[in-house]
Amino acid sequence: MDLGLTNKNVIVMASSKGLGRATALEFAKAGANVFLTSRSEASLDETADELKQLTGNEKIYYQPCDMSSADDIENLFQEVNQKLGSVDILINNTGGPKAGGFEAVTDEDWYESFEKNLLSYIRTTRAVIPHMKEKQFGRIINVSSSSTKEVIDHLILSNTFRSGMVGLTKSLARELAPYNILVNTVGPGRIETDRIIELDTITADKEGISMEEVIDKNNQHIPLGRYGKPEEFAKIVVFLASSANTYLTGQSLVVDGGMLKAL
């Protein structure tokens, strides 16, 4: 299948590791021009070199960006427009918010998570829409969480703001469809990333069991019997963002190995 990604301009947020890095790698393999971001310039430099070596694609660019900073996002897209000219595909992605139940989080935690995990997506989307409208083509993928389908205990911030992301996605999909701009949300289930290690470590400490036991217990609830790999998630994102997808928009999908029972 031809994904039509050769020389498409793609920006992947939070892409120096984890799901963002895996997604950027798949785009680079497909011949896209890829712009990376994260807070660490050293990590970005290392990731850019790795992607070039793995794919032979030299059109890999990067700039540090704190997703909670409006100024950083504005400066980022000035650089993106200078390097790429415009953005065809935006992959919104950030690290997960602080773990904890309702009584464990403060007003400051709520404000921080809102700015990092929802307002940042709004700001980046605002930056790319004018060019996408002009070109009559665009793909926006909002990376979320399985909590958009089934709330996760002790993750009140994620449950709240990831759901807001779904509302944003559906609204944008309807507004932007006349311009051939497709907008979707993709949430990971238990994918092997630093975030899942963090959450499993919290569970292990709370229950007084080993990480291996936590993983074994979780695998029992996954029909495929294992955690997913970042590249398995990334391939779904790349398909949805490609020219091969011409009709699916406004959807909230979960890549979870069949874990969720919710319809």
Automatic annotation (TrEMBL):
Record keywords: Oxidoreductase
Protein family per UniProt: Belongs to the short-chain dehydrogenases/reductases (SDR) family.
Name of protein: 3-oxoacyl-[acyl-carrier-protein] reductase FabG
Broad class of enzyme this protein falls into: oxidoreductase
Gene3D superfamilies on file: NAD(P)-binding Rossmann-like Domain
Protein's UniProt keywords contain Oxidoreductase: yes
Gene of this entry: fabG_2
BP terms from Gene Ontology: bile acid metabolic process
Domain of life: Bacteria
Species this chain originates from: Sporosarcina pasteurii
